[in-house]
């Protein structure tokens, strides 16, 4: 980045106030890619035990088979549930592969006389995603009643035949996931023996800007930093999920050991809860003040952090992605790189929609690099994302980048996108 482009804090117009705490209610533009025929032979009455044993022997659910239309880059993917005598319905919701206009389209079919329930999609072979199962075991009002679908969505279950899970964002039960053969794998997140490990500490930071305190996770890279050196720094929002649940430190340890990024410090503030997250991660000047004027100076008192915006990355997902981009626009003197994943650039719902994109369009080019990535299944976020991409291109942000991956609004995808983004923005 050209050092002559560095600037003082930017005075942005005030963001909209009292906005709804929900994304737009947009219909899915394309049908969910259902297949009538499953990717396996289903059993008849009496053959269930052999069938389920074979499912486990094949590595568990979902089952993947060739595309019945003969395409080499697509697969048939069958989700399964082993029901009971009381099971009335099973709904499966792969991330962003449901249609809110047609919730019944995500209901599994039952093989008569057996305990087998099934549902099959046709997906490109680089798809990956988490998914939820909702199982009605016969209590309460039945299908067809007015409140049935909303009640069904309270009956979430983890897939017992799938050994692959991720921690859920807000719930204790983990979430199952699937990866097709050509999907990127999160190998950089796997612990490796012999790799030097950094140190993670959990602390509490007082904030006059936010009127309280926040838990923060601080990652210090392995090794000794020379007195004259200053560490690049990553500020990653939603810290209580990225470190305690997902183990960000393993990723940083591996990237540093491989020489793909230099030794980097990471500062991870918590989002607290959903209500606080909506209130603070929606283009709030006081939150940017907290990050730039309180959190980073506090961290610099503990670690030798660089104060060069070109060596500082702010990263976030969803509302956190919106906030990362907003923070870079509001404080380019502190945040020279914004790593934005599935950012909520539709925000807010209503007449001020896509406020940040319109604000950036009316400003001169800032000394900031944006690294944007979005899932092709994110039908709500994707149109606004592409308009932001085009706006940045028109403004001359030629050192920024934009990627789309075959997935949804999903930490499974964000893990590898985060690794790729850090290498792009901080790599040697």
Give a short synopsis of this structure.
The chain has 428 residues and is α/β, with parallel strands linked by helices. It has 10 helices and 18 strands. A hairpin with a 4-residue loop joins strand 11 (199-207) and strand 12 (212-220).
Strand line-up of the largest beta sheet: 11-12-14-13-15-16-17-18
Q: Give the helices and strands as they follow along the chain.
A: EHEEEEEEHEEEEEEHHEHHEHEHEHEH
The Cα radius of gyration reads 23 Å
Number of helices: 10
What characterizes the major β-sheet?
8 strands, mixed
Estimate percent helicity: 10-25%
- Total E-strand runs: 18
Structure classification: alpha/beta
How far apart the termini lie comes to 14 Å
**Average pLDDT level:** 95
Spans of 5+ residues with little confidence (pLDDT < 50)? 1-5
% residues in beta strands: 15-25%
Overall outline? globular
């Amino acid at each position: 980045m050209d050092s002559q482009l560095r600037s003082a804090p930017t005075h942005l117009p005030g963001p909209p106030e009292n906005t709804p705490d929900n994304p737009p209610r947009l219909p899915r533009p394309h049908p969910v890619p259902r297949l009538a025929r499953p990717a396996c032979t289903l059993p008849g009455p009496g053959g269930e035990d052999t069938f389920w044993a074979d499912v486990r022997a094949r590595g568990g659910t979902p089952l993947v088979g060739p595309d019945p239309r003969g395409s080499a880059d697509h697969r048939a993917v069958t989700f399964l549930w082993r029901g009971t005598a009381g099971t009335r319905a099973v709904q499966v919701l792969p991330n962003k592969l449901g249609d809110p206009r047609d919730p019944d389209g995500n209901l599994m079919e039952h093989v008569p006389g057996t305990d087998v329930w099934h549902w099959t999609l046709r997906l490109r072979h680089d798809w990956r995603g988490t998914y939820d199962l909702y199982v009605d075991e016969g209590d309460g009002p039945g299908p067809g009643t007015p409140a049935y679908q909303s009640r069904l969505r309270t009956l979430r279950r983890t897939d017992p035949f799938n050994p692959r899970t991720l921690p859920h964002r807000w719930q204790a039960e983990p979430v199952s996931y699937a990866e097709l053969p050509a999907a990127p794998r999160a190998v950089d997140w796997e612990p490796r023996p012999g790799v030097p490990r950094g140190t993670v500490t959990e602390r509490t930071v007082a904030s006059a800007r936010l009127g309280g305190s926040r838990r923060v996770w601080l990652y210090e890279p392995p090794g000794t930093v020379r007195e004259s050196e200053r560490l690049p720094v990553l500020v990653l929002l939603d810290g209580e999920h990225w470190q305690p649940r997902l183990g960000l430190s393993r990723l940083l340890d591996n990237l540093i050991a491989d020489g793909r990024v230099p030794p980097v410090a990471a500062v991870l503030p918590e989002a607290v809860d959903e209500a606080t997250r909506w209130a603070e991660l929606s283009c709030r000047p006081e939150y940017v003040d907290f990050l730039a004027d309180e959190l980073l100076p506090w961290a610099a008192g503990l670690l030798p952090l660089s104060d060069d915006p070109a060596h500082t990355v702010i990263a976030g997902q969803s509302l956190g992605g919106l906030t990362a981009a907003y923070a870079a626009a509001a404080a380019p003197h502190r945040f020279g790189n914004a790593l934005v994943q599935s950012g909520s650039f539709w925000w807010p719902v209503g007449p001020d929609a896509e406020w940040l994109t319109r604000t950036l369009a009316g400003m001169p080019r800032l000394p900031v690099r944006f690294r944007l990535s979005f899932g092709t299944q994110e039908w709500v976020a994707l149109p606004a994302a592409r308009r932001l991409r085009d706006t940045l291109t028109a403004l001359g942000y030629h050192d920024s980048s934009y990627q789309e991956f075959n997935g949804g609004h999903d930490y499974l995808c964000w893990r590898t996108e985060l690794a790729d983004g850090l290498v792009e923005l901080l790599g040697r």
